[in-house]
C-alpha cells in the first residue's frame, strides 16, 4: 500500500466530503468537526447510497455520516453501521500532514 496526496484540507468542506477515484472505486474523504479526516468507500452498506452526499456530524471516534437515501448512520472511524443497523463500508487510513490530506491506498 502507498500513501497518496488527496488535496489541501481546506478543499474539503467542514462537515462535508470530497470524492476521489482509485481503480474504478469511488472513495469519500470526509472532514468532521475539529478537522479530523476519514475515508470510506462511497457506498452505504445498506443499498449503496452515496455516503459523500450524506450529513457529517460529531468528531473523533464519534464522527459519523448519515446516508442520504435511508438515514443509516455510519461511523467514520470504522465504517461500521451504527446499531440497530448492521453492515460496514470499507475504511481507508488517512493522515493530515502540513495541511495536506493523505490517503493510504
Automatic annotation (TrEMBL):
UniProt domain Rieske: residue ranges: 4-103
Pfam families: Rieske_2
Membrane-crossing segments per the record: none
UniProt keyword Iron-sulfur present: yes
Assigned keywords, A-Z: 2Fe-2S, Iron, Iron-sulfur, Metal-binding, Nitrate assimilation, Oxidoreductase
Gene3D superfamilies according to UniProt: Rieske [2Fe-2S] iron-sulphur domain
GO biological processes: nitrate assimilation
Keyword Iron-sulfur in annotation: yes
MF (Gene Ontology): 2 iron, 2 sulfur cluster binding; metal ion binding; nitrite reductase [NAD(P)H] activity
Descriptive protein name: Nitrite reductase small subunit NirD
Source species of the chain: Azoarcus taiwanensis
Gene: nirD
Amino acid at each position: 500500500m502507498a500513501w497518496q496526496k488527496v488535496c489541501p484540507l481546506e478543499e474539503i468542506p467542514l462537515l462535508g466530503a470530497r470524492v476521489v477515484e482509485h481503480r474504478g472505486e469511488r472513495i469519500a474523504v470526509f472532514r468532521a468537526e475539529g478537522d479530523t479526516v476519514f475515508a470510506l468507500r462511497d457506498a452505504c452498506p445498506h443499498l449503496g447510497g452515496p455516503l459523500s452526499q450524506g450529513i457529517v456530524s460529531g468528531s473523533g471516534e464519534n464522527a459519523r455520516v448519515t446516508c442520504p437515501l435511508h438515514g443509516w448512520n455510519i461511523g467514520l472511524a470504522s465504517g461500521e453501521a451504527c446499531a440497530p443497523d448492521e453492515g460496514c463500508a470499507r475504511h481507508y487510513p488517512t493522515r493530515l500532514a502540513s495541511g495536506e490530506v493523505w490517503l493510504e491506498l
